[in-house]
From TrEMBL:
<dbReference type="InterPro" id="IPR003694">
    <property type="entry name" value="NAD_synthase"/>
</dbReference>
<feature type="region of interest" description="Disordered">
    <location>
        <begin position="441"/>
        <end position="462"/>
    </location>
</feature>
<protein>
    <recommendedName>
        <fullName>Glutamine-dependent NAD(+) synthetase</fullName>
        <ecNumber>6.3.5.1</ecNumber>
    </recommendedName>
</protein>
<comment type="function">
    <text>Catalyzes the ATP-dependent amidation of deamido-NAD to form NAD. Uses L-glutamine as a nitrogen source.</text>
</comment>
<dbReference type="Pfam" id="PF02540">
    <property type="entry name" value="NAD_synthase"/>
</dbReference>
<feature type="active site" description="Nucleophile; for glutaminase activity">
    <location>
        <position position="147"/>
    </location>
</feature>
<keyword id="KW-0547">Nucleotide-binding</keyword>
<dbReference type="GO" id="GO:0008795">
    <property type="term" value="F:NAD+ synthase activity"/>
</dbReference>
<dbReference type="GO" id="GO:0000257">
    <property type="term" value="F:nitrilase activity"/>
</dbReference>
<dbReference type="GO" id="GO:0005524">
    <property type="term" value="F:ATP binding"/>
</dbReference>
<dbReference type="GO" id="GO:0004359">
    <property type="term" value="F:glutaminase activity"/>
</dbReference>
<dbReference type="Pfam" id="PF00795">
    <property type="entry name" value="CN_hydrolase"/>
</dbReference>
<feature type="binding site">
    <location>
        <position position="179"/>
    </location>
    <ligand>
        <name>L-glutamine</name>
    </ligand>
</feature>
<dbReference type="InterPro" id="IPR036526">
    <property type="entry name" value="C-N_Hydrolase_sf"/>
</dbReference>
<feature type="binding site">
    <location>
        <position position="173"/>
    </location>
    <ligand>
        <name>L-glutamine</name>
    </ligand>
</feature>
<dbReference type="GO" id="GO:0003952">
    <property type="term" value="F:NAD+ synthase (glutamine-hydrolyzing) activity"/>
</dbReference>
<feature type="active site" description="Proton acceptor">
    <location>
        <position position="44"/>
    </location>
</feature>
């Protein structure tokens, strides 16, 4: 019998920072070696980060990767490195996993299953591999696979047939609600199918609209979960295995708890916001705090992501802003300990109207005046951003973005929208959930009916179906691709469905100009939903 100590390195690489990622790899490898690990496993495309998108098309890619691999080979490590990188071979790019041992690249495996659905478009960049890679790891025949390879039955069966007794699987598997459970079920099935344990290492952290939860795990050949790393943080943990009677055996070891859905979604929003702000070098964030629930939840996320000292909230009252909105906003800012200012938009609104009145020639009031209020606020927030170097957080939720219930260059002006993929009903649930950990949002913000306060006594539900109904229709239409008729057949009022579906379709132009935000569902308004703006498609079908 011999023992094998496997370090699982759940790291947060920075996309494109190949030298920096090589340093991160070396730092983790030295730590793992000092703890006695034989091998260290990193996530998919460790050197480039995931997804590198069109950086993969840059002419200097091969040179940069070769330089980093040379640095790793020359590092004089006693531990075996298993890492991922894009590899250019005769002008074709492979999504590669490589094993570096004793200063040599001892074997390489090219990903065979290239995901090309939802947010993934690997076929645009990579050529698939066609064979298993089994190498000797302290006497154990060990196979490599990369992320999507494990979502299909082929590569595991192929590795088993090639004699592998252990599988190391490198991942960049983005989060959506429910995904951690889905992955663990899948891994159990694959381990049983391959008759071998699988060590699954995922990356963690935010990358533009994607967020990676980590949640790396190891399952034994029977499909039992033996190890789970904590979600939403970098983690380096050692996994002990024994090799005897021709099999790798793993006992149950520490299992970080699996989170409830609301916890994991909230953490996804916090992680996505934090990494966007930090990785893009912003000092902090600023947002308009209206006393409504969207900006309240966005503020809580920002503070949990960055700490109160990096967050500024600005209330910008107008004649329709209620007293309650102003006291709630000030109270929430106090509870969260953030910088708070109140800047009236009355004078600038009046100045715009005075300029426009002669050319509008007494035209009746409509949404023009409402949008002007939102745009005055957008101008102030962007001025703060320019002067102070803070990123403007917008606050639009998925329901609003779906139906175009927001103002271009007004409340849509900004750089990042934490709630972009969060339906309004989930905004309420998350706000209550956050308050259970400490009441940071004044309860009246959660209990009062939502209003844009752009006209006297305005309520969102005067112009939209109730959010419970709206969100169900949107989930069916946007996330599940149902037709309007199919949604009506499920019992929703024809009038509501036709109106909502029409609004979704005609507001594509607005979403194309919206800031990016954290994707937490299987279908966000981003990389995974690409509709033409100019389109003759009959609405809603
Ligand atoms: N296909 C297309 N391609 C490119 N641009 C297109 C376009 N169609 C219109 N446009 C442009 O877009 C303009 C219309 O968009 P926009 O100016 O945004 O204005 P619009 O969508 O007409 O109005 C904003 C709506 O959002 C509501 N709102 C505003 C602010 C906050 C909230 C809230 O509660 O969160 C709700 C407000 O009550 C109103 O119903 C048009 O005047 C035109 O310039
Ligand atoms: N009086 C205000 N002071 C500061 N910011 C405001 C004010 N009114 C609106 N905003 C900004 O514009 C965003 C959209 O606000 P609006 O009230 O129109 O819609 P909402 O979707 O109900 O948002 P919220 O629930 O945050 O009020 C707000 O989240 C906030 O960032
Ligand atoms: N990077 C990948 O291959 C990811 C694809 C995979 N199905 C996942 O989401 O986990």
């Amino acid at each position: 019998m011999s023992s094998l100590s496997i370090a699982m390195a759940q790291i947060n690489p920075l996309v494109g920072d190949i030298p920096g990622n090589a340093e991160r790899i070396l730092e983790q490898a030295r730590r793992a070696e000092a703890q006695g690990a034989d091998v260290i496993v990193f996530p998919e495309l460790t050197l480039s980060g995931y997804p590198p998108e069109d950086l993969l098309l840059r002419p200097s890619l091969a040179l940069r990767i070769d330089r980093a691999l040379d640095q790793l080979k020359q590092a004089d490590l006693g531990i075996v490195l298993v890492l991922g990188y894009p590899k250019v071979v005769a002008g074709r790019v492979f999504n590669m996993a490589g094993v570096v041992a004793r200063g040599q690249l001892v074997c390489e495996y090219a990903k065979q299953c290239l995901p090309n659905y939802q947010v993934f478009d690997e076929v645009r960049y990579f050529v698939p591999g066609d064979s298993a890679c089994v190498f000797d790891l302290k006497g154990v025949p060990t196979a490599l696979t990369i992320c999507e390879d494990i979502w299909q039955p082929g590569p595991v069966e192929q590795a088993r047939d090639a004699g592998a007794k252990l599988m190391l699987n490198l991942n960049a598997s983005p989060f959506h609600k429910g995904k951690p459970r889905e992955r663990e079920q899948l891994l159990a099935e694959r381990a049983r199918q391959g008759h071998m344990p699988i060590v699954y290492v995922n990356q963690v952290g935010g990358q533009d609209e994607l967020v990676f939860d980590g949640g790396s795990v190891a399952v034994n050949a029977q499909g039992d979960l033996c190890r789970r790393l904590p979600a939403w943080q970098e983690s380096l943990e050692l996994l002990q295995a024994n090799w005897h009677d021709g099999s790798v055996h793993m006992a149950h070891q520490a299992l970080a708890p699996q989170q409830q859905d609301l916890d994991s979604v909230y953490q996804a929003l916090v992680t996505g916001t934090r990494d966007y702000v930090n990785k893009n070098g912003f000092k902090g964030v600023v947002l308009g705090l209206s006393g409504g629930i969207d900006s309240a939840l966005t503020l809580a996320i920002a503070v949990d992501a960055l700490g109160p000292e990096r967050v500024t909230a600005i209330m910008m009252p107008f004649r329709y802003t209620s007293e309650l909105s102003q006291t709630d906003a000030a109270e929430q800012a106090r509870r969260m300990g953030v910088r708070y200012h109140s800047l009236s938009i009355e004078p600038m609104y009046e100045a715009f109207m005075a300029t426009l009145d002669p050319v509008f020639e007494g035209a009746k009031r409509d949404t023009t005046e409402e949008n002007l209020q939102a745009r005055c606020r957008g101008v102030l927030l962007m001025a703060w951003s320019n002067k102070r170097g803070d990123l403007v957080l917008t606050t639009g939720n998925k329901s609003e973005l779906a139906v175009g219930y927001s103002t271009l260059y007004g409340d849509m002006a900004g750089g990042f929208d934490a709630l972009k993929d969060v339906p309004k009903t989930l905004v309420f649930e998350l706000s209550r959930h956050r308050n259970e950990q400490g009441e940071v949002i004044p309860p009246s913000v959660i209990t009062r009916p939502p209003s844009a306060e752009l006209a006297p006594d305005q309520k969102d539900e005067d112009s939209l179906p109730p959010y419970e109904v709206l969100d169900q229709i949107l989930a069916l239409y946007v996330e599940q691709d149902c037709s309007a008729e199919a949604i009506i057949a499920r019992g929703f009022a024809r009038e509501d469905v036709e109106r909502v579906v029409r609004l979704v379709d005609i507001n594509e132009y607005k979403r194309r100009q919206a800031p990016i935000g954290v994707r937490i569902t299987q279908r966000g308004f981003g990389r995974d939903r690409r509709y033409p703006i100019t389109s003759g498609w009959k609405l809603g079908e």
